[in-house]
Amino acid sequence: MKVTLTNTTKKLCVIGDPVLHSKSPLIQNAMISAFGLDYIYLCQPVPKGRVGEWLKAASVAGYAGFNATMPHKEELVGWMDSLDPLAEKCGAVNTVCIKNGEYYGFNTDGPGFLRALTELTGEGWGKRVLLLGAGGAAKAVGLALANSNNLVTVCNRSVTKSEALCDLDPDRMTPAGFSPGELKRLAEECDVLVNCTPLGMEGTGSEFEDLRFLEALPAGAAVCDLIYAPAETALLRRAKELGHPAMNGMGMLLHQAILALEHFTGRSLEVEKAKDAALKALGENE
Ligand code: NAP
């Protein structure tokens, strides 16, 4: 991958604490290179609590925008001059465009998941969705699904957290618990199941204790895991054995990045070309 720098090259980056593990520079520079855009995407550590200083510095330094990961997504909300409706509802910003000294905040996580789901199922609306987890990712994905006219049941270990999430869209979201019995009962009436917990993620050592709820899914129900390392979790393996269409979190990761680059550049990008470039760079980096 080669990014050509000129004196007018526009700067982008990802901020976080920690952030050096981020795949965003690799993915974004691969897409920038594939489309011949005059941008470069860097990795910028910003300590927790210092987002205000970073925003001023980024504006003075002429950054066109940046992505944000933990722990800045929530804090950024209060600093934005304008917020897209999903970022506002979610209370989290992962993409900031800087124009004429003003900050425009977006959340591309939920829309990124919806694009990936649409690739898997043909459409991403009018479904009964079982969402496992009520953390940051579940919030972004759940609210985007509800916003697209899906009915979402949020199952979480701490029910107070699923209740708080569902209060943000009570007409289309219903809280529930996480016991094997409850998951089995709810799985019987769902079209899409989405794992937004870290259960099964590489390096966590945590796994679902019981995957028998998958056996209760109606035929053809889609199973999605936001995890992409490993590429196939035990949940996805079992879902595929049972004949369900299944996808990991790579589609969401790529689509949220494509959407972010579209916001930064103000142009729509050819999705397959963007995905191919990013996947090639990720593969070469392994
Ligand atoms: P988070 O804010 O920490 O939330 C984690 C959620 O999982 C919480 O609801 C938590 O329940 C639940 N949970 C954790 N351990 C559990 C266990 N042992 N049993 C049952 N529930 C458990 O994390 P997050 O940022 O939402 O991330 C969640 C997952 O999504 C991670 O695997 C992350 O890598 C993935 N992700 C993927 C993408 C992508 O682009 N593909 C983007 C973002 C995140 P409690 O509330 O009860 O603690």
Total count of helical runs of at least 4 residues = 11
Strand order across the biggest sheet? 2-1-3-5-6-4
Radius of gyration: 19 Å
Which range best describes the helical content: under 10%, 10-25%, 25-40%, 40-55%, 55-70% or over 70%?
25-40%
Q: Tell me the β content.
A: 15-25%
Distance between the termini: 14 Å
The kinds of small molecule bound in this structure are: NADP nicotinamide-adenine-dinucleotide phosphate
Classification by helices and strands: alpha/beta
Q: Stretches where pLDDT falls below 50 for ≥5 residues?
A: none
Overall geometry comes to globular
DSSP summary, beta strand count: 12
* Average pLDDT number: 96
What is the N-to-C order of secondary-structure elements (H for helix, E for strand)? EHEHEHEHEEHEHEHEHEEHEHH
Largest sheet: 6 strands, mixed
Give the topology.
Layout: E1 10-16, H1 24-35, E2 39-45, H2 51-60, E3 63-68, H3 73-77, E4 82-83, H4 85-90, E5 95-99, E6 102-106, H5 109-121, E7 128-132, H6 136-147, E8 151-155, H7 159-166, E9 173-176, H8 180-187, E10 192-195, E11 222-225, H9 234-241, E12 246-247, H10 250-265, H11 271-285
Parallel strand pairs: 1-2, 1-3, 4-6, 7-8, 7-10, 8-9, 10-11, 11-12
Antiparallel strand pairs: 3-5, 5-6
Helix pairs in contact: 1-10, 1-11, 5-6, 5-10
The protein binds NADP nicotinamide-adenine-dinucleotide phosphate.
